[in-house]
Amino acid sequence: MPPAFSAEEKDRITRLLLETGSRLFPAKGLRKTSLDELVEPAGIAKSSFYAFFDSKEALYLELMLRQTAEVRQRVVDDGLLRGETTRDGLRRFLRAAVRELATNPLYSRLMTHPEEMDAVRRRVDPARIAAADNPVTALAGFLTARRGADLIDADVRVVIGVLQTVLFVPVHADWLGDDLQSPVLDLLIDIVAAGLTSRKEDLA
């Protein structure tokens, strides 16, 4: 039976588990990160891990949820919704998301390894995921409100897929070379944003 921890010990151990997970999951992935590695910095036995999290997936989800509100603020509130037009909003969203990929290791990991989020969904309470302030949900609402007006009349899921596809470019752009990555991505973002929006914006 795991030992009882004081409130102060629980806070300290939880913080250490979160810090360790935030370092190991992006570097090694969910499957290859072991419980031994997660608990070692906290100085607890593997069995004691479950007094804090139900599973590795639950720890992974907690890390993701703690970042979700901040990511939404940067890519949706300060990006997408600050655009003067739908096209400008999409440009701002994509540029903010690219910055997030460059500076947020867990977000980058989720983009390049979607199977890890699938593993999390299978092991944790779906209500916890559904309740998250998800940037993709906010993006879907934005696109739905503009579909057929100043956004092309296409399935919103398809439009989101196109936008997500753009975000795979910076993750796999080493072959472009350092001097081409930024200009290629800037042009691609402009082309995609223009292609998804109404020609009415060209006349405005």
What is the compact description of this entry?
This protein has 204 residues and is mostly helical. Helices cover 71% and strands 0% of the residues.
Task: Write up this protein.
- The chain is mainly alpha-helical and 204 residues long.
- The chain has 2 domains: 1-52, Arc Repressor Mutant, subunit A (Orthogonal Bundle); 67-203, Tetracycline Repressor, domain 2, CATH 1.10.357.
- Helices cover 71% and strands 0% of the residues.
- The chain is elongated, with a radius of gyration of 20 Å.
- Residues 11-71 form the HTH tetR-type domain.
- Pfam families: TetR_N.
What is the 3D shape? elongated
Q: What would CATH call the class of the largest domain? A: Mainly Alpha
Secondary structure tally: strands = 0
The termini sit apart by 69 Å
Task: Please state the CA-atom Rg, rounded to the nearest Å.
Answer: 20 Å
List the total number of helices.
Answer: 12
The biggest sheet, with number of strands, parallel, antiparallel or mixed sense and barrel status, is: none
Tally of individual domains? 2
In terms of DSSP E residues, the strand content is under 5%
Compute the average pLDDT: 87
Q: Name the poorly predicted regions.
A: none
Structural class: mainly alpha
Pfam families: TetR_N
Keywords: DNA-binding, Transcription, Transcription regulation
DNA-binding region: 34-53
Domain HTH tetR-type: 11-71
